[in-house]
Amino acid sequence: MREIIVAGALFGALYVFAAWRQHRRRTKDRFVSLALFFATPRNLDADALRKASEAAWDFEFSLSEAATDWVVGSPPTLMAKAQGFHFLVNVLDRSYFAATSSKVAAPPPKNVPPHSGFLSVDLLATDEPRSDQEVYARSGPLIEALLTEDCVALFVPPKNLLFTLDTAEHVALVRKALRSPDVLASLEALRPPADRAAFAERKYR
Questions:
Q1: Sequence ranges of the domains in the chain
Q2: CA distances in angstroms from 154 to 35, 91, 111, 133, 146, listed in the order given
Q3: Residue 53 in 3-state DSSP?
Q4: Cα 2 to the center of its chain, rounded Å
């Protein structure tokens, strides 16, 4: 009887491990990203990212060496892991479209404001299966916490959505959308109806 219980436990552990590995492989192929464009290069270190993450997620990182949630790195690449979500934070002193990969939708959106630096928060992985809405509900508040006065635009690379931040009203609306439970739907609602219709036509053409 004991041997059967041990065998069952081992089988269960192997099944869970296999499912976890399959989930991680699927996550690696996803592109869930938000970016901020800055008029001047942005400086961000691990300590500043940690404070922004804690403010965004109402969460406090442990300083213990055994902690499973952490912020590490330095520009141009930092990482933040908390409560099962792993994010890569890129900080570069160049135009976004000169630095990013072919995952970005082409062609770039119109009327991209001049910028000499950008910051992006990209999904690396999740410990458990999560929808894009759940991921953006985590990365949106983090991007909002990192949005400063010299930010000229918010960009959603997977959707090719650009929001200029040239007035206090625009900034307030975007901040509110980034803090909403459904970030993408809230941002879509900020687009003029003609832009939404044109995007839908290109998507289903």
A1: 1-30, 31-204
A2: 6, 14, 13, 18, 11
A3: helix
A4: 47
